[in-house]
């Protein structure tokens, strides 16, 4: 019997699949996130939901809204965790200015598309998105179905 090599755990904590469906995603940027200790422990367990995650700008800083980090049952008793608190994003001033100007001028919105581990730190992937209309969503689904059919046909032959 051959021994199986243990697989390394995935570095991805959570994905925002709804963002890809509802928006045309363009530029992607990586940012750090300021977390509390109990949040890091919960993220190690994979307790993150980011269905309606988006970013707002206030006083020249970026903040993540809508991310739900469920607290563990083993958190200490003197901490009262807030699962939906606003979390600060850590980025350079030039990146913040560039993102804020593109959001203000071009009508984009800034969405969180993924949260993952990188060198022991939690990183957030942000994407500039422009909202899709209903007919755009239908066209995307139609194209995806056609690609699946093509792959099935090619696999049969």
UniProtKB/TrEMBL annotation:
Compositionally skewed regions (Basic and acidic residues) per UniProt: 137-157
Provide the residue span(s) of the region labelled Disordered: 131-157
Q: RNA-binding among the record's keywords?
A: yes
Domain of life of the organism in this record?
A: Bacteria
Instruction: List localization entries.
Output: Cytoplasm
UniProt-listed GO biological process terms:
trans-translation; trans-translation-dependent protein tagging
Q: What GO molecular function annotations does the UniProt record carry, in alphabetical order? A: RNA binding
Which Pfam families does UniProt cross-reference here? SmpB
Q: Does the keyword Cytoplasm apply?
A: yes
Per UniProt, the keywords (alphabetical) are: Cytoplasm, RNA-binding
Q: Which CDD domains match?
A: SmpB
Q: Name one GO cellular component term.
A: cytosol
InterPro entries registered for this protein in UniProt: SmpB, SsrA-bd_prot, SsrA-bd_prot_CS
So what family is this one in?
Belongs to the SmpB family.
Q: Which HAMAP family match?
A: SmpB
**PANTHER family in alphabetical order:** SSRA-BINDING PROTEIN, TMRNA-BINDING COMPONENT OF TRANS-TRANSLATION TAGGING COMPLEX
Protein name as catalogued: SsrA-binding protein
The lineage, from the top, is: Bacteria, Pseudomonadati, Pseudomonadota, Gammaproteobacteria, Oceanospirillales
Q: Which gene encodes it?
A: smpB
